Structure formats: structure tokens, C-alpha cells
């Protein structure tokens, strides 16, 4: 059962340590209730350089976890590194200019922060990451906030808070709704979840005007990307348990269908895609596993 969500927005901007002002009432009754987190996050924070030596360039992990993914038949691969407990530690993807990496830091047996950088010609331990994501937990040890920081150009390890995600849970402990606020313009979006996946997202201006709404539909097949993204960093709902097969928004409906191929060990070896039943299957990604 989804919790009752009040129409009055209970997430004050003062929580962020910014100028105190009331959040206008939105057009839709989709506001998120206040979380158990009451301490204000820092708008400026200092972070250390990430220990990129932990990242295995070719991937490293147990036999049941993908350590590399290739696009179609391309030789380049996005790789994944897991720690000794089998938790996702890092991902590394070649780009035109170098690499994009994500590197997680675990403290007291839970994810504390993630370093994120792009356009790195080499993985240099002397470099600061461009972005840092910090996780804050509620009294039930659930992620209550995901704080997105961006490094100041002239700041040695100094970062500014640019985006905040807040999560609300139902009685079963599953995410019911989450709110994402962009601090630069105070715009925000509220996503309603169902069965562990985002079901719809509404985007609002700082005045509370509904700008856009999107609905998501999934199939019942296992998504090979599940678990390959850190919380709050999933692009286009790729990393959830099932595959996203329909996106319905202001620009129409986008549909696709997926086919999975398995290796001799029963692991997903490849995922193919087509847009209509009359289209041929196109190889989308191939998956490689640890030993």
C-alpha cells in the first residue's frame, strides 16, 4: 500500500542552508512528506582525492556479477569492480577524451559517497573528481537523501551542493516517492514508485507549475543492468529489476522490446532490442563475468 501523500510540500528550502522561503503548492497532490533527516546538509563541503587505484581497468568481481559490458559488437567495454563483499565498488567507461568513472566509498557497512569524474585522460591518484555524491540515512538505515556536489573550479577539494534527492518509504520498506530538487533554479521533480521501480515522474518549475509528466512501463524479464548503478545515479531507469519497455510523455510514446540470451552457466550473455514486432532484433549489449 502506498502511503498517503499530502498536497502541501513539506520539504523546505531552508533544509539546504539556503535563503528561507516557502515552497509553493504544486498543481498535483504529489508532494513528499518531511524525512527523518533534520540536520542541514552542507552547501559547501570538502572532499579528499579518490583512491582510483582501487578501480580494476579490466573489471574484477565474482562469477555471478558482470565485470564488463560492450555495446553491440564494439570492442570497447564498460567495466565494473566489486569489493571483497561482492558490492559494486566502481565502474569505468572509455570516452572520446579518456574515461568516465564512478567510485564508491563504504563506511560502517553502507554506501557513504561516490566519486564521479569524466574526461580523465588517465586515472591519476593526484586528481580530484569533478563530482561527489554523498548519502544520508534515516532512522531505519534507509537512504533518505542523496546529495550531489560539484567541484569549484578554483577550490582545492572544495565542492558546492547542486542537487538534492529525498526518498519516502512505505510500510513495507520500499521506496514510495522521491523528490529531486535542482538548486540553481529551484525546479524539482517528484517520482512515484511501484514494486521497486519508478512508475511516473512529474517535473515542476520553482513556482510549482507542472512542466512535464512521464510514465514508465516495464516487462517481467530480468534486467541485466540491475545493480550496476549506484543509488541516485541511474540513467533513464536502466538499472532496475525489469527492463523499461515504454516511456509515455509530452512528446508521445516510446516503446521497445528486449530479448535476452544466456550462457552455459545460466547468466545473461546479451540483450537485444527492437522497436516493433516487425523489426529485426539488434544486439544492444554483451555481458562478461568474473571468474
Descriptive overview:
With 291 residues, this protein is an all-beta fold. 0% of the residues lie in helices and 48% in strands. It contains no helices and 18 strands. It is globular, with a radius of gyration of 20 Å.
What are the SSEs and their pairings?
Elements: E1 44-46, E2 66-71, E3 77-82, E4 88-94, E5 99-107, E6 110-120, E7 131-137, E8 143-151, E9 158-169, E10 175-182, E11 188-194, E12 197-204, E13 210-222, E14 242-249, E15 252-255, E16 257-262, E17 268-274, E18 282-289
Antiparallel strand pairs: 1-9, 2-3, 2-18, 3-4, 4-5, 5-6, 6-7, 7-8, 8-9, 9-10, 10-11, 11-12, 12-13, 13-14, 14-15, 16-17, 17-18
Number of alpha- plus pi-helical segments: 0
Main structural class: mainly beta
Global geometry: globular
Number of strands: 18
Percent helix, as a range, is: under 10%
Brief descriptors of the model:
mainly beta, 0% helix, 291 residues, single chain
Briefly summarize what is shown.
0% of the residues lie in helices and 48% in strands. With 291 residues, the chain is mainly β.
Amino acid at each position: 500500500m502506498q502511503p498517503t501523500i499530502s498536497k502541501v510540500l513539506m520539504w523546505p528550502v531552508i533544509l539546504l542552508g539556503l535563503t528561507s522561503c516557502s515552497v509553493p503548492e504544486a498543481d498535483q497532490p504529489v508532494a513528499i512528506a518531511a524525512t527523518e533527516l533534520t540536520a542541514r546538509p552542507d552547501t559547501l563541503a570538502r572532499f579528499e582525492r579518490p583512491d582510483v587505484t582501487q578501480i580494476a581497468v579490466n573489471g574484477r568481481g565474482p562469477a555471478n556479477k558482470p565485470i564488463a559490458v560492450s555495446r553491440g559488437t564494439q570492442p570497447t567495454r564498460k567495466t565494473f569492480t566489486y569489493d571483497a563483499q561482492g558490492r559494486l565498488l566502481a565502474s569505468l567507461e572509455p570516452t572520446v577524451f579518456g574515461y568516465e568513472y564512478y567510485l564508491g566509498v563504504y563506511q560502517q557497512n553502507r554506501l557513504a559517497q561516490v566519486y564521479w569524474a569524466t574526461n580523465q585522460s588517465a586515472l591519476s591518484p593526484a586528481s580530484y573528481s569533478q563530482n561527489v555524491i554523498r548519502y544520508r540515512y534515516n532512522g531505519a538505515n534507509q537512504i533518505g537523501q542523496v546529495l550531489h556536489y560539484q567541484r569549484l573550479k578554483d577550490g582545492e577539494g572544495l565542492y558546492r551542493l547542486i542537487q538534492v534527492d529525498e526518498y519516502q518509504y512505505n510500510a513495507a520498506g520500499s521506496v514510495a516517492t522521491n523528490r529531486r530538487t535542482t538548486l540553481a533554479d529551484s525546479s524539482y521533480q517528484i517520482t512515484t514508485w511501484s514494486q521497486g521501480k519508478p512508475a511516473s515522474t512529474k517535473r515542476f518549475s520553482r513556482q510549482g507549475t507542472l512542466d512535464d509528466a512521464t510514465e514508465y512501463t516495464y516487462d517481467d524479464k530480468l534486467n541485466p543492468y540491475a545493480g550496476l548503478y549506484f543509488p541516485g545515479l541511474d540513467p533513464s531507469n536502466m538499472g532496475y529489476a525489469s527492463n523499461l519497455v515504454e516511456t509515455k510523455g509530452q512528446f508521445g510514446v516510446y516503446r521497445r522490446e528486449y530479448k535476452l540470451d544466456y550462457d552455459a552457466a545460466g547468466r545473461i550473455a546479451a540483450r537485444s532490442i527492437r522497436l516493433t514486432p516487425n523489426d529485426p532484433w539488434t544486439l544492444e549489449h554483451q555481458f562478461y563475468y568474473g571468474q
